[in-house]
Amino acid sequence: MSTQEPLRLGVDLGGSKIEVIALDGGGRELARRRVATPRGDYASTVRAVAGLVSGIEGELGRRGSVGIGIPGAVSPATGTIKNANSTWLIGRPFDRDVAAALHRPVRLANDANCFALSEAVDGAAAGADIVFGVILGTGVGGGIVVHGQPLPGHNAIAGEWGHNPLPWPRDDERPGPPCYCGREGCIETFLSGPGLARDHAAAGGSDRTAEAIAAEAAAGDAAARATLNRHLDRLGRALAHVVNLLDPDAIVLGGGLSNIDGLTQGWPERLSPYVFSDRVGTRVVRARYGDSSGVRGAAWLWSQDEAADALGTAGVGP
Ligand SMILES: [Zn+2]
Description:
The protein is α/β, with parallel strands linked by helices. It is built from 9 helices and 12 strands. Helix 1 crosses helix 2 (94-102), helix 3 crosses helix 8 and helix 6 crosses helix 7. The protein is globular. The relative contact order is 0.15. Mean pLDDT is 93; it is low at 314-318. The site of zinc ion has 6 residues, from loops.
């Protein structure tokens, strides 16, 4: 590898930790570092990101392009952060402040978009033209990649289907659990980890985490299996909406719940009753990079050529 080849650095800003990764031109991981997120402190968060980037560049002896994934987005209306559960970022020009601290342009995207991008570039959906990435964790998010590019959308919310209502609801699913967004019966209230646990308890099961329910189902517990079957049916209905609207070539499941055995089995048949098509061939797969997809996708926000240009125009010397 040429020593002139710029690094591509990805930063994943989470509620509890900030992680940085350095990729070479072929997507090989060269280094990775993390620090605790300075919760509630904006200036310290900017400094922490800049410090991680400077630190990994110092170790590797090269500069890099910087992409950042956050659980939120830059509002096209104001140029500041919105929809972030790291609420101390909201209303702040976070990408511009990090760019100023690092003396170079940075790109910022929603973490679900970064996840989808990582899986579309060289992950479980490599080679697919249109990819819908789903994060099933404590929340439910989604991101869209078209021809290798993330699709942010006019309002920077493309793919955010977790706060759509659960489609084709049954009588006992209406109006559905209250959601922090102010509505009831959002997809997230059913398909998140806490949603699955709530559903299990509501059906008479014991108070368990989603992971524990999955383990009980794998061990043959009938009630836990029934809960997982309801979950899979709801996931099928929720994703059928996506197929009818976007018709992706591949849907990638990520987040903690994607590790549940059986979640990626039985597709695309689960979609067929709800999709408006004679046949449904959509691939539904588990993420290749697991928890690392977000940070890898942030690095992929710059192509290799763009990365070289960004560093060139930003000036390498003092
Ligand atoms: Zn909601």
